[in-house]
Amino acid sequence: MPVDPKTSPLWGHIVELRQRVLRSLFWLALFMGLSFPFSDHALKYLGTKAGVPLVFTTPTEAFWVTLKVSLFMGAVLGYPFVLYEIWRFVSPGLYRREKKNVLLWILGGTLFFTLGVAFSNFVALPSALRFLVGFGEKEGLQAFMSVDRTVAFELRFLFVFGLIFELPLLMALATAKGWITPEKFRKGRRWALVGNAVAASILSPTQDFLNMMIMFVPLVILYEAGILFSLWTARKGQKNVPTVSSRSRVFL
After folding, report:
1. E-assigned strand segments in 71-218
2. How many CA atoms lie within 13 A of 80 on its CB side?
3. 56-59: long-range contacts (C-beta < 8 A, 24 or more apart)?
4. 208 within 8 A of 131, measured Cβ to Cβ
5. Distance (Å, rounded) from C-alpha 234 to C-alpha 181?
6. pLDDT of 69 higher than 70
7. What is the dihedral angle through the alpha carbons of 108, 161, 87, 81, rounded to the nearest 10 degrees?
8. What are the DSSP E strand ranges found in the chain?
9. In the chain, helix, strand, coil percent, each to 5?
10. Distance (Å, rounded) from C-alpha 108 to C-alpha 232?
11. Which of 58, 95, 168, 211 has the fewest CB atoms lying closer than 10 Å?
């Protein structure tokens, strides 16, 4: 007798995944809508970072860049809620101890991403813009900067640094999964320097030396911090060896 696919566990997971994706999109759309009335203030704030007046060259440019800023603000504000939907999707298949760990990883990921955006906003981005605009002015050129391209450059800078600051957490996660040990991270410092230099050249919005160094130096510091996080995770894993009783599943 054929089995109805809609009654299978796989179909239930597919339906649940669809609901979580739709809810995640709802959170992003909601926060984007809530951010739209304040997008003009955010746009003015981003515009002042260049140090020169920004212009729009097409009738629709100002409108579209406002939507981009609203989308970015909505994504940042809705990020914890999207992570919550992901956690709700995977939590029924996790053990009690694993649930606690996943929640810590999610909170840590949000914290490190926020720190990366803050570092970029207050340190990296102003330095990069001052150098780039100042370099052109020293060459006798007058800045005539498009608001769309300038703000897009700034948003990419903020987003990339948010991802860069996830490095220590990713290193700790790799240790927790047993993929690599802290000793291997220590021995791989030389290769990490080369990899960080390549990553800085790729992730940097421009390939000038200063922007590369603005990304390279934090990557080196974050790698060293990742080694410490990896050591802490390894020691914690040795203390929290799961027992038979702790392996009982807890479903929501």
Report:
1. 145-146
2. 9
3. 56/146, 56/147, 56/148, 57/146
4. yes
5. 8
6. yes
7. 100
8. 54-55, 145-146
9. 80, 0, 15
10. 14
11. 58
Token representation of residue 51: 């140090």
Output Rg (C-alpha) for the chain, integer angstroms: 23
What six digits make up the tokens of 48? 């002042």
Q: How far is 114 from 209, CA to CA, in rounded Å?
A: 26
241 three-class SS: coil
Residues 6+ apart with CB under 8 A from 107: none
Would you state the structure tokens that stand for residue 173, as one six-digit string?
């996660």
Cα angle: 99, vertex 181, 106; to 5 degrees: 25
> Residue 57: left (phi > 0), alpha (psi -120 to 50), or beta?
alpha
Q: Distance between terminal CA atoms of the chain?
A: 33
User: What would the pLDDT profile of 171-226 be if each residue is shown by its tens digit?
Assistant: 887 887 778 888 888 888 888 888 888 877 776 655 667 767 877 888 888 888 88
